[in-house]
Specification:
By secondary structure, this protein is an all-alpha fold. It contains 4 helices and no strands. The radius of gyration is 38 Å and the shape is rod-shaped.
């Protein structure tokens, strides 16, 4: 009888350990699910914001878009600004002929 009770006690102990391990796994899985849900929501919000504002540019694209100031724009002749596009083409043709 004593052996039977000791065997039963050991069986209950093993089941209790399995139960505790299962509960721990469940808690870990719930934490991972909550984290995945938060990441999904963040991505969804980012996609909505991107639709409204347009796609985000990378840093390289931003650098390409920046205008490089070579200092030549500062010395424009006011007479050339008044010329039409046809007159500018004529001036360019004259310069090529020379």
């Amino acid at each position: 009888m004593k052996r039977g009770l000791l065997g039963l006690k050991q069986e209950l102990k093993n089941r209790m350990e399995l139960w505790e391990a299962a509960l721990e796994d469940i808690e870990n899985l719930e934490g991972m699910a909550n984290e995945a849900k938060a990441n999904f929501k963040k991505q969804k919000d980012d996609m909505k914001a991107e639709k409204k504002t347009g796609p985000k540019k990378s840093k390289d694209e931003d650098k390409k878009d920046e205008k490089v100031d070579d200092g030549m724009d500062d010395q424009k002749n006011p007479e050339e600004e008044k010329k039409t596009s046809n007159e500018k083409k004529d001036d360019n043709d004259k310069k090529k002929d020379i």
